[in-house]
Design a protein that fits this description.
Layout lengths: L12 E2 L12 E2 L6 H11 L3 H16 L21 E2 L13 H9 L2 H7 L3 E6 L2 E7 L1 H5 L3 E4 H7 L1 H7 L10 H9 L4 E5 L9 E6 L6 E2 L2 E6 L4 E7 L13 H6 L5 E3 L5 E20 L7 E3 L4 E5 L5 E3 L8 E2 L1 H6 L3 E4 L8 E5 L12 H13 E6 L4 E8 L3 H16 L5 E4 L5 E5 L2 H11 L10 H5 L2 H15 E5 L6 E7 L2 H13 L5 E5 L2 E5 L2 E5 L2 E8 L7 E3 L2 E5 L2 E16 L4 E4 L2 E4 L10 E11 L4 E10 L3 E11 L4 E10 L2 E4 L2 E4 L5 E10 L4 E10 L5 E10 L4 E10 L7 E10 L5 E10 L5 E10 L2 H8 L5 H12 L1 H4 L4 H18 L2
Parallel strand pairs: 1-36, 4-8, 7-10, 8-11, 9-35, 10-35, 11-36, 35-37, 36-38, 37-39, 37-40, 38-41, 39-42, 40-42, 41-43, 42-44, 43-45, 44-46, 45-47
Antiparallel strand pairs: 2-3, 4-5, 6-7, 12-13, 13-14, 13-32, 15-18, 15-19, 16-17, 19-31, 20-21, 21-23, 22-23, 24-25, 25-29, 26-29, 27-28, 30-31, 33-34
Helix pairs in contact: 1-2, 2-8, 6-7, 11-12, 11-15, 15-16, 17-18, 18-20
Length: about 850
């Protein structure tokens, strides 16, 4: 018995903004939908006649159908604009060694190989529309468990495939089921013999690499009587993220809607943030200076010029080959995977080109701020009960001269100040001017380790910034004359790491590339007392130097790599998606976003999952979906549960432009059980139309449907569900609960529950609620020291707890982490 409204949407993993070169594909089909395309799929798979006939019937049925009236968005999809078939390898591999390198890199990013060793009993990988890898541990093979791709199963297990394929979801069932049956390729086939209990989960990974690509996997799971199996689809979160070393914490704090500088030196909006577990190699790229080093995964693209492309003379006596300045200036930098970079290659340091003058900052005020950054502080005087602005100078005549000049500058602005000599014979300038105190705090901050320049100073025209820098260096800088060439090294130190990189950027705007080096803190003993010295960041450059390894072109500096280090890393890595360029700067150096390819054109993911749970069996199917936001995600998932069987759908839906997915379970035998947990998260521009269906066709059956959804930033979620209790299905027990959480006024939600009860003795409960995060909840948590973002994360994760507790620990942790990031970005 088929449900009338069972349509669509699926899951898995596609937010990984890198894409691989399609010219390496063994086969890439033609665009559009036709009998010719279907025949080509049949030919390439070498399929039996019965499958070809089924495909053709499904195609004709689809072309004659119209999208359902309740889902008008399906009519907006141009089904002729997609490629319905691509094969990257030509055949599925049995071992990782047989895979092409670019596909192994892709799935290494997902952690498949490590997962297989540590956690998974079986792994399958689907790339575009084809299986590229399937593996199952030997112990399961001995028990007769089959885990392969569906195309292989057609050849090796033809009787099972013909018996069950299309029986749970026939092509006549719905609009998308007809399309999917006509053009399906790959997917997973799982067969568990009678009495076998698979204690570890089987898992599959999926990826759409090419724009305008359609992916149509077909999954068939058969659990024979009294067998047990868990199948996990996808990877959480589906985002390929990169560790940026010491900058990782900062990229973790970046949220959607902020603006970052791209490789062109211009600002662009952040449209996505990503986090992902990584267990493998981590590279440290060290430019000329130690503090400017940054860490990333080997596949992350870095803007660079290869030294070998600009060499003018071979290296001698251990020196690198000499690079031609003329060739370097005419070279076009390219994005190179970090793992391919070599010592001597040139990184591209980009100076932001945005500037905005502020007439309220006079020349005198810029000089005062420069001295304040070097020598100033603001403190509260208990005796005077007021803030005091204080500048401390040394004993020398040059220090005295600077103090006197500062005093004159303050007086020239109309504010009062005084100068005196302390007991230690140091010169001190003080002022109680609220105007100056507020200006210094706002522009440069307070505290040696936390001083930071504000946006006004960072965006001033370079000539005005030079005034500020000159007076800063007079107060905090040291000059050293090099006897070898009479060049002058200028060096300044600060305890503020972020300030050091800001000073580097200001000097870059002035046409000077400065190194930033780190002097680690230490403990000393002076006169019997232990003195703790903090980390110091040294900003230094040389004036009048005749030759430099660093070359400048416009707002870019080409900086040679000094070292490339490799280490083992296990933890989370981060990445951001940036509007337009998909690039950003790490400590000034340009990198590309290597997560999921986000194309202006759209991609289509349509899958069918069929589960047959025979007598007494247990089948659990878990989906964690986070597609990129250009994907239409349309899936039909359905199970047949026979006598005493239990089927469980555990479904998370995130990402995608549109998701339509309603996992359903047909309870065909007495005492069979259905459990459906559906969770959806919709952010800006997203529609998550999800739910679940339980169809009771036998007596003494039970079902439970739990739906939870979260919407923010104008996202829309909808619960669409069906509970059907047929005539003759006595003593049925069913509960349905759907709850929605709205995080702002722009977001929406809707509920479409359908209940068809044809027996009087059925016990049915239905609850639905729509709520907002209570101010009292947030206040309670924040009063105990939590930030607003952390408090919101805790509330939302608690709301979604029924889903998280059903996941294996590894996935539950990452699911909670993903939602925490989303909620942190929601604040404000």
């Amino acid at each position: 018995m088929a449900s009338k409204t069972d349509t669509v949407t699926e899951d898995y993993k596609e937010k990984y903004g890198f894409s691989d070169p399609v010219d390496q594909y063994a086969v890439k089909g033609i665009k559009g939908l036709s009998e010719r395309v279907v025949q080509e799929i049949v030919r390439l798979h070498d399929e039996p006649a019965w499958m070809e006939q089924l495909r053709m019937k499904a195609l004709r049925h689809f072309l004659e159908m119209k999208p359902p009236a309740w889902a008008p968005d399906l009519a907006d999809i141009d089904y002729q604009s997609f490629y319905y078939y691509a094969n990257p390898t030509g055949k599925a591999a049995d071992s990782w060694e047989q895979l092409p390198e670019y596909i192994k890199r892709t799935y290494d990013k997902l952690g498949i190989t490590d997962a297989e060793k540590k956690f998974l009993a079986g792994v399958g990988a689907i790339y575009e529309s084809e299986a590229v890898y399937h593996s199952i541990q030997g112990e399961l093979q001995k028990q007769g468990v089959v885990f392969s791709d569906t195309v292989t199963a057609l050849k090796e297990y033809p009787d099972i495939m013909k018996k069950y394929f299309g029986t749970v979801v026939p092509y006549q069932d719905n609009f998308i089921a007809a399309l999917q049956t006509a053009v399906w390729s790959a997917g997973s086939f799982v067969y568990v013999p009678e009495g076998v209990k698979v204690t570890m989960p089987l898992q599959a990974y999926f990826r759409i690499n090419e724009r305008n690509m359609g992916q149509f996997e077909r999954t068939l799971i058969v659990g024979e009587p009294y067998s047990e199996v868990t199948y996990i689809e996808g990877c959480l979160p589906a985002d390929e993220l990169v560790s940026l070393g010491s900058a990782m914490e900062q990229i973790h704090e970046v949220s959607r809607g902020e603006r970052v500088v791209t490789h062109e030196g211009r600002k662009r909006l952040v449209n996505e943030t990503y986090v992902h577990p990584h267990n493998g190699q981590m590279l440290t790229i060290v430019p000329q200076s130690s503090a400017s080093s940054f860490r990333l995964t080997p596949e992350h693209p870095v803007l660079a010029v290869r030294r070998e492309s600009v060499v003018v003379r071979a290296g001698r006596n251990g020196w690198l080959p000499e690079a031609s300045t003329a060739k370097l200036m005419s070279a076009e930098p390219e994005f190179v995977e970090a793992g391919d970079l070599k010592v001597g290659d040139f990184l591209v340091y980009v100076v932001p080109d945005e500037e905005a003058d502020d007439s309220s900052l006079s020349e005198a005020l810029l000089k005062i701020l420069g001295v304040y950054l070097a020598e100033g502080s603001v403190s509260y005087s208990v005796s005077l009960r007021r803030d005091v602005l204080e500048f401390s100078f040394g004993k020398s005549e040059s220090e005295k001269s600077l103090a006197k000049e500062l005093l004159s500058l303050i007086h020239s602005t109309g504010e009062k100040a005084s100068m005196y000599r302390s007991r230690g014979k140091y010169w001190v300038v003080t002022s109680y001017s609220k105007k100056l105190i507020d200006l210094c705090r706002k522009s440069c901050g307070t505290g040696a380790a936390t001083k930071l320049l504000d946006e006004r100073l960072m965006h001033l025209p370079p000539t005005r910034q030079e005034t500020f820098l000159r007076y800063y260096l007079r107060g905090d800088g040291n000059r050293y004359v090099k006897k070898a060439d009479n060049s002058v090294m200028i060096r300044a130190s600060t305890a503020s790491r972020l300030l050091a990189f800001q000073l580097q950027e200001l000097l870059g705007r002035a046409g000077v590339f400065a190194n930033v080096n780190l002097r680690k803190g230490s403990e000393d003993t002076i006169a019997g007392r232990k003195i703790a010295r903090k980390d110091k960041y040294i900003v230094e450059y040389t004036e009048g130097k005749k030759w430099s390894a660093v070359r400048r072109k416009g707002n870019r500096f080409f900086v040679p790599i000094k070292k490339v280090l490799s280490s083992k890393f296990e933890g989370r890595v981060y990445n951001i998606g940036v509007e337009g360029d998909e690039t950003y700067l790490v400590k000034g150096f340009a990198v590309h976003n290597c997560s999921a390819p986000v194309y202006s054109s759209q991609s289509l993911h349509s899958a069918i999952v069929e589960i047959v749970a025979r007598k007494g069996s247990l089948v659990k199917y878990t989906t964690l979906q986070n597609w990129s936001r250009d994907v239409f995600n349309l899936v039909t998932k359905r199970a047949h549960a026979y006598e005493d069987a239990t089927v469980s759908w555990v479904d998370f839906n995130g990402g995608s432009k549109l998701t339509r997915k309603y996992p359903s379970i047909y309870l065909l035998g007495p005492r069979s059980r259905a459990d459906i947990i559906s969770v959806a998260y919709a952010g800006p521009g997203q529609v998550q139309d999800t739910g679940g269906k339980a169809v009771h066709l036998a007596k003494d059956t039970t079902s439970k449907i739990i739906s939870r959804s979260v919407s923010k930033g104008g996202g829309h979620t909808a619960y669409r569900g069906l509970l059907h209790i047929a005539k003759g299905a006595k003593n049925v027990k069913s509960s349905v609960r759907c709850d929605a959480l709205l995080l702002d006024q722009a977001s929406t939600t809707a509920t479409y529950p359908y209940m068809e009860i044809q027996e009087d003795d059925a016990t049915v409960t239905h609850e639905a609620s729509v709520g907002k995060v209570g101010e009292e909840q947030l206040f309670y948590l924040m009063s105990r020291g939590m930030s607003e973002g952390d408090a919101l994360s805790m509330v939302v994760n608690g709301f979604l707890e029924p889903f998280a507790k059903e996941l294996p620990m590894t996935y539950a942790v990452e699911f909670n982490r993903l939602m925490s990031l989303e909620m942190t970005n929601a604040v404000g």
